[in-house]
Amino acid sequence: MQKKFDSYCERLQEKSYKITPQRQMILKVLLDNADKHLSAEEVHYIAKQRDPEIGLATVYRTLEILDNINILHKIDFGDGCIRYEFSDKDAHNHHHLICINCGRVIEFNDDLLETLETWIEKKTKFEVTNHQLKFFGYCKDCQSE
Amino acid sequence: MQKKFDSYCERLQEKSYKITPQRQMILKVLLDNADKHLSAEEVHYIAKQRDPEIGLATVYRTLEILDNINILHKIDFGDGCIRYEFSDKDAHNHHHLICINCGRVIEFNDDLLETLETWIEKKTKFEVTNHQLKFFGYCKDCQSE
DNA sequence: CTTACTGCAAATCTTTTGCAACGTC
DNA sequence: GACGTTGCAAAAGATTTGCAGTAAG
Asked: pTM above the 0.85 mark?
């Protein structure tokens, strides 16, 4: 965890962003909840418990930067806000199962799309840099209803 | 086209929604632009040219209904608004290539995911009803930059 | 004639921006 | 010390809601 934190700070520095206490804290909040897909609001809520001074705009600005330098990326689960996830989390082969009843998000690994990507690049001349695959449906607990 | 329009009206009726002129018009706008992925704002803009009286809230409310009864579904291309697409459009095997430079959206067909879905249902006991696959990258025109 | 639907305006919610004060390098 | 960064408050967008009037079945 400390290792990741340090490498993210380095990446910020490389891109000549300053390592401020707020940015470090936001990174720590994200690392502590790496399994969660937090939204800006949620990051702010947790961050405020650690430092009540921190502003929501700072959180938004930091997440934007972390997205730009590819530490995070945005995901939309259709619940009205942008959520974030670390980019290096099994990078290319992890997808999401989203329950349309309770909203739970389950992660799922598979590398089937590698093949598809190469095929797309050949066939359509579109240069693929990333993909997102979401399955909607009902989780185990919601199927009875 | 007329056939689809009629069947959509029927579906509205079945669910005991009224067939108002506004709803008919919104459906026609959507059918006339079935290749486009319009947002609520865009639907309203086109609709207003046909009937300047129509209100934006009506458009939002109608799109919500059409989504609920599965005539449309929402897609998010990361441009800050919800876009819509007919649900029956090659339903299960059409995906999107989104250019992160110019924002162009290219459609792409493939049925690879059918297999994956069955596999997920077996493996995770998640009941899949739909999926969304998006590839991000650079379209032909933007690759030179 | 009843109940759902509409248009408008106001409200809400998420995200962005302007700006003076502040802190990192 | 310079310049990027912060917090706050205000602004901006997208979407939702309340309500009185209107119209579909």
From this structure: yes
